[in-house]
């Protein structure tokens, strides 16, 4: 999986986000498309360290755990979201979409800064810049596929 910090990857994801509509069909899971947009925004806020993390060390925070989360298929509808990534409630569709794209741009901008500081993932703990870039790309890809884009 490419890194979210790659310019081509970023532009691909923005294009996919732009193809979302309030009627985009869900392929699995329970979230509505608008809840998914807010969930992705919350995950980007977490990556930026803008939300407190309830992280407690576990297997997924080990080096092997990081390898698994960055390489194994993401289960469809089986892995519950961290509460930190389910905070924002859907509001106006256009505003929620704009907010998501704004946070995505902030993440990419910070990822291309040599001395950037990142949040602590609530399940996976401290991640390197490379790990954040790959995880964010995988996470966005997973949920955009969930809604057929």
Topology:
Layout: H1 7-18, H2 33-47, H3 63-71, H4 93-111, H5 129-146
Helix pairs in contact: 1-4, 1-5, 2-4, 2-5
Explain what this protein looks like in three dimensions:
49% of the residues lie in helices and 0% in strands. The protein has 149 residues and is an all-alpha fold. The chain has a single domain (7-146), classed as Up-down Bundle (Four Helix Bundle (Hemerythrin (Met), subunit A)), CATH 1.20.120. Helix 2 (33-47) runs antiparallel to helix 5 (129-146).
- Poorly predicted regions: none
Report mean pLDDT, rounded to a whole number. Answer: 93
Overall CATH class:
Mainly Alpha
Helix share, percent: 40-55%
Give the topology string: H per helix, E per strand: HHHHH
Summarize the structure.
Helix content is 49%, strand content 0%. The protein has 149 residues and is mainly alpha-helical. Helix 2 (33-47) runs parallel beside helix 4.
């Amino acid at each position: 999986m490419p890194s979210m910090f790659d310019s081509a990857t970023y532009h691909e994801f923005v294009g996919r986000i732009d193809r979302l509509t309030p009627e985009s069909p869900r392929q699995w899971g329970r979230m509505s498309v608008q809840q998914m947009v807010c969930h992705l925004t919350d995950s980007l806020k977490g990556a930026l360290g803008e939300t407190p993390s309830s992280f407690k060390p576990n297997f997924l925070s080990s080096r092997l755990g990081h390898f698994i989360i960055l390489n194994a298929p993401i289960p469809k509808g089986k892995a519950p979201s961290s509460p930190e990534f389910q905070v924002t409630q859907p509001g106006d569709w256009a505003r929620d979409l704009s907010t998501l794209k704004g946070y995505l741009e902030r993440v990419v901008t910070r990822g291309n800064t040599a001395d950037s500081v990142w949040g602590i993932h609530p399940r996976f703990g401290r991640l390197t810049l490379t790990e954040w870039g790959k995880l964010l790309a995988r996470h966005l890809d997973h949920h955009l596929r969930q809604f057929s884009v």
